[in-house]
Amino acid sequence: MESLVFLKPNVVIEPLIERWYAWSHLISPGTAAMNVVKRHVEIMNSYLESPELHDEAIKNPKMLGGPFMDYKENRSEDIKKLLESTFLNQKELLTLSFAIRKLVLMLNKEAKGQSLESLYENVPEILKGYVELIYDLNGNPSFRFFEHLLYKSKFYNKNTQSIALWITNNDSRPFCLSTPRLEENDVLHLNIPFDDEFIDELSKMKRTPRPYNEIREMLGDLNEVEESLFKSFFTEVPSVPYAKYEGNNIRMRYFGHACILIETKDISILVDPLISYYGYQSSVEHFSDYELPEVIDYVLITHNHQDHILLETLLPLRHKVKNIIVPRSGGGHLQDPCLKLMFNNIGFNNVIEIEEFSTISFSDCSITGVPFTGEHSDLDIKAKICYHVDIADFSLLFVADSRILEKKLYEHTQKLIGNVDVVFLGMECDGAPLTWLYGPLVVNELSKEHDQSRRLAGSDFNRGINLVNIFNPSEIYVYAMGQEPWCEFISSIKYTDESNPIVQSNHLINECISRGIIAERLFGEKEILYNKKK
CA–CA separation, 467 vs 471, rounded Å? Predict the structure, then answer.
């Protein structure tokens, strides 16, 4: 009888698109097209012009998160091949990007407040039938996609999707938005789309063993080297057993960054999953995916940024997630792709959209959408929401990276949801400029001054203390700071004691403690038990 094997706990299932780290803007066709041209191609061309410049830049801490490739040796030949394959495999996206730019420039020139009907004949041919031309109420011209049709068109190509399997032994990784995953001796690339059931079956094997040949048969041909590497990802050593929480309290576990698991003996809710691995030596104690329950009732996504929708975590969890809740968007605007469509097209068929002040109720728990302002560089983006979670009359408010721009909004909100027991607030209050994340989508020139003023920034002390004054929590936790070492490859954040977000959050914590409020900046791991009758 063939022995049963487990997938090793520190095997990474890394999702890639044309060898670049997959995040939500690389899946939605419109944003993918713009990022391929204005991020990937530009970075690859820059590297080919001067690998030495990139090598020097990555040694400078001030350049962390910049458009520089991070390799230990010169990989020019590999990047040249990747650039060539990009022009071949993503030619439809390249064409789409140029058509979008042409459409924006045409509207700038021709749309002066008159009816837009006559301008449809000037829409680039490949965009015809996929866009509607619009004005806002003040006469500024724009367009919106029929995004569902884009996913059914040649512009959405699952053949560029793949996964890379490798074993992680530490938290050190290059910044993922600037460094594609090239061929390495210890990395196995499999041309498998994200909705393939192989990902689910492989992921289950971290807990549930099966014969090696069963999982091997789900793959196509592998050469001798690939076969040996694939086999090395498995072990007969049993996985760490999971102990289901059976207590009478509400248990909160912090997994790092903005990832919080809320559990009672009856329900589990996971917020913004970004979870590290078990089985390697880390400099920081942390919970891993082995601390997750066998079934996750609800996953809550706060907003469409790469450190809050981490596909590397979400895809391996897909088989155990019953429902995933996302903010309602879907207006078709380039900068605000529909999250439900995105998740549906990568194999999540259990997606629920939530709006501001709408509520999802079940058992003795309710989840209500709360406005999320700021942190999106003043762009018209609706795919962002905070969550008010009420369990047995114990309430938690997840504010994520919201910047409290107008306190009266939350005063109005408090009248609807009441005071809360616990607030989780992100205070990365400096933030990157607009172009760091949204630059590839911008067609009209943006001055450096305006770019620097429109930042991806969360709340500082003054804005954060407004939440304390309005909602009167008994506990407040600063989170989503990107400080954990396993977050650096996606957040590119490193702080010192003098960094403004640390100074501002220290100020908030000290002020709260002086008022008798429990306050802490979360880091690494944290477990808290709340009494339902508290």
Answer: 6
